[in-house]
Structure formats: C-alpha cells, structure tokens
Specification:
This protein is of the alpha/beta class. The chain has one domain: 2,3-Dihydroxybiphenyl 1,2-Dioxygenase, domain 1 (Roll), CATH 3.10.180. 20% of the residues lie in helices and 31% in strands. A nine-stranded mixed β-sheet has the order 2-3-4-1-5-9-8-7-6, covered by helices on one side. A nine-stranded mixed β-sheet has the order 11-12-13-10-14-18-17-16-15. Strand 7 (159-165) and strand 8 (168-174) form a beta hairpin. The longest helix has 21 residues, at 28-48. The protein is globular, with a radius of gyration of 29 Å. The chain starts with 5 loop residues before the first helix and ends in a 17-residue tail after the last strand.
C-alpha cells in the first residue's frame, strides 16, 4: 500500500468541496499576500489620485482702471507713454503696452465707485473658457452667473463668471479676498472675435510720449492673509517663487523670469473681513534712469511727494529697497508716481525681476 505524504494529503480537495466550487482556504503565504494587498488598497487611492491641473498662465496681459475722467486720463497716459489706442468698447479705452497685444484700459467710474484698479488680466496658453473655468473649479472657484455690479467684491469671492461681448466670451474670477482676474488668450487685444483678438481700428497717439513702455513687470496686492494667497496662486497657476523681498515676502514668477505677482499684508486666518486690494502695477521701460525720469515727470507737472503717509494725485517718489528687503547694498531704487486720480504706477528697468542688484535684475534660482 502506497503511503500518502502529509503534505500531499493536506492539498487534496474533498468531493464535496469540488462540487461546491473553488477552495477559498488560505495558506499562510496566501494570507500574508492578501493582507498586504488590503493594506495597499487603503493607501493607494490618495497616492495615485491625480492632482488638479493648474491653469497655464503665461504672462501679465492687461488691467483696467476706473477713472473719474476718461479723456483726462487718456491724455495723461498718452503724454507719458505715447501709447496708441488699440480698441474701444463703449466708453472703455484700451491703450497698447509695448508692441501689444497686451494693453491697459480706462473706464469711467460708476455710481458709488471710487477710482482704482478693477482687475488684473493674465494670458493663458491654449485658452478655452470652459476648460479653464473647470480647472479653476478644481481649486475652489465655483461657477456663478455674471454679476450686475462689482462693488461688493467679497460677495464675489471664490467665484468665476463669463461676460459676453458679441462672439467674445470673457472669463473672470475673484479670489478668496475678492481680487478680480481676467483670463484670456495671448492674442486678446480687447477687440472682437472669438478670442477678442481682432483690433482693426487702432488710433495713433498724438505724440511719441516721454517714456517708452516695454512690457509689464508686476502687480503688488495687499491681502488680509498673504500666505493663503501665495499658496493658492502657486498651486492654481503652477508657479514658484522667483525672489524674496524680505524673509516673509516672496514674489511669484509668472513664467518668463521677469514678471511676477506679489501678495503682501497680514496673516489673519478665517473668512476675510475686508477685500484685498491691488496696490499698484509696475511697467518696464527703456533707458531706465532715475534722475532723468524724475526730471521728466517734474517738467510735466508732477510734484515730489514729501510725506509717505500723504500720497496725493500727480506726485512722484523713490523707495529704496535695502538688503533686508532683498535689495542691493545702498538700496535698489524703485520709482513711483500717481496719476490724476491718485492711482499708483511703478516704473523699472526692463530687467527688473524683483531681485537684488541696483536694477533689481538679479534673481538667481532659489
């Protein structure tokens, strides 16, 4: 009689078990594999979950300011910059920056409004309104209908909306603190067409202007919680810090190594009690020389600001950014002026990146 080894006997399946289906008993090794598989199932979904795709912001493209007298402001900016009118839309006037199509626009204040910045415009690669709007939703910006008025910006916080001008659909969103952004194609000129890219009735400026605009440099925004803003924009736009203007003051590079967005202010947690504020825009100009530009502004009729706590319309001033704020030894000069409505504009060298050096043009990799 042939003996059956114990190991062979333990592996036999009884006729009853064979009829009832597969054997679901586990060996010690199988059990260990199964438990390991269960543990992997518990941690794998978050690990493999795809992060939201950031909006492919390319450059600073435009902004709008509300002014008390459009014709007065138009004359002022054309006298300074020689900027042609790129397009018009009702009472709104678009002035070309550099070679275009980027621009800034002037619109009249509405009842109850004060002069100031209404939004920042950013260009997006391969722009598509619906796709970009869905991307924003993944970062907490819910879709809403277009508001009738923009006074209560905190009521618009964390929403996006679309405004239609003929065939052009324009996408706007407000961040957690109510600062409004306009996202567009790189071809957008404030005109007609699907992308707002058709501007066929440009109007030359009356003269060459005193200063030649090259491009945008940056925007500085005051927030109730600067860290929250920096976190949101680095994630939502997929950007990183380009330089620091002090230990707690990073600047977010927009993508070309020069332009940036800066968020400064407090660190108050929770729901904002007041809207954020666009403090100023900075343009880059050719032949940046502080004394020459100050003399030109003075000759035009701007006065030197004497009290930093009392900035009135039509003033100019210099702020020296020292090493404790990322500036050069002896200071990096930053030149500002205020327009007829007191709106603040900064001018810098075309290489200014928010970094160190006399011209602020040294931004080594962080």
């Amino acid at each position: 009689m042939t003996r059956i080894k114990k190991s062979e006997s333990s592996s036999k399946i009884s006729p009853a078990a064979a009829k009832s289906g597969p054997d679901h008993r586990f060996t010690g090794l199988d059990r260990r594999r199964f438990l390991k598989y269960l543990s992997l199932m518990a941690v794998t979904p978050p690990a493999l979950a795809q992060s939201p795709v950031p909006v492919a912001v390319q450059k600073i493209h435009s902004f709008n300011i509300r002014v008390s007298d459009v014709n007065r402001s138009l004359k002022f900016y054309q006298d300074l910059f020689g900027a042609p009118v790129q397009a018009r839309r009702g009472e709104q006037v678009m002035l070309r920056v550099g070679d275009g199509p980027h621009f800034f626009s002037l619109s009249p204040v509405a009842a109850g409004e004060q002069p100031g910045f209404s939004h920042i415009g950013l260009s997006v690669a391969d722009f598509d309104v619906d796709r970009v709007r869905s991307q924003l939703e993944n970062f907490g910006i819910r879709q809403a209908s277009s508001p009738q008025r923009l006074e209560d910006r905190l009521a618009l916080a964390s929403t996006s909306w679309v405004k239609e001008y003929g065939a052009t659909r324009e996408l706007y969103f407000a961040d957690r603190e109510g600062i409004i952004y306009h996202l567009s194609s790189e071809a957008y000129c404030g005109g007609s067409g699907v992308l707002g890219e058709t501007c066929s009735n440009a109007e030359a400026a009356p003269g060459p202007g005193m200063l030649r605009l090259v491009d945008y440099s940056h925007f500085t925004n005051f927030m109730g919680n600067r860290n929250r803003a920096n976190d949101f924009y680095t994630r939502a736009f997929g950007k990183s810090y380009q330089a620091y203007q002090g230990p707690t003051s990073p600047v977010i590079g927009v993508g070309d190594g020069i332009q940036f967005l800066m968020y400064v202010g407090g660190d108050t947690p929770g729901k904002p009690e007041a809207p954020g504020r666009i403090d100023h825009v900075c343009f880059s100009v050719t032949n940046f020389d502080v004394e020459t530009i100050l003399a030109q502004l003075t000759d035009y009729g701007l006065g030197a600001r004497e009290d930093p706590s009392d900035t009135q319309a039509m003033m100019h001033w210099i702020s020296m950014r020292m090493p404790n704020r990322g500036g050069a030894e002896g200071g990096t000069p930053e030149l500002y002026f205020s327009d007829p409505d007191g709106i603040r504009i900064q001018l810098q060298d075309a290489g200014y990146c928010g970094g160190t050096g006399y011209l602020g043009d040294d931004c080594p990799p962080l």
